[in-house]
Design brief:
Elements lengths: L2 H7 L3 E5 L4 E12 L2 E7 L14 E5 L5 E5 L2 H12 L4
Antiparallel strand pairs: 1-2, 1-5, 2-3, 3-4
Length: 89
């Protein structure tokens, strides 16, 4: 993973999309596990029903990521989720 790619995620909250699901992650780092690159971090506010997984560790395989949306902060992500759920977007 080159440093330019890591820099765009530094301090951000990101919603990663794959062919089957989405996963929002904050406090992002990249970690190689068994020769496979993963995006590792924590679940942000508003990412799960009733925030049951708030701040839990999570990871997504980088090679499964098809798209992503970068938010400047966890607060910005949370507001986007709330607006989406309210049908405002």
């Amino acid at each position: 993973m080159n440093s330019d790619m890591m820099d765009i995620f530094k301090g951000k909250t990101v919603s990663f999309g794959s062919s089957t699901d989405t996963l929002a992650v904050k406090n992002i780092s990249f970690q190689e596990i068994h020769n496979k690159l993963f995006v590792v971090g924590e679940i942000p506010l508003s990412a799960t029903e009733q925030n049951l997984a708030l701040n839990k560790s999570c990871a997504v395989a980088w090679d499964s990521v098809e798209d992503f949306i970068v938010f400047d902060s966890e607060s910005e992500y949370s507001k986007w989720v709330e607006a989406t759920e309210a049908g405002e977007t």
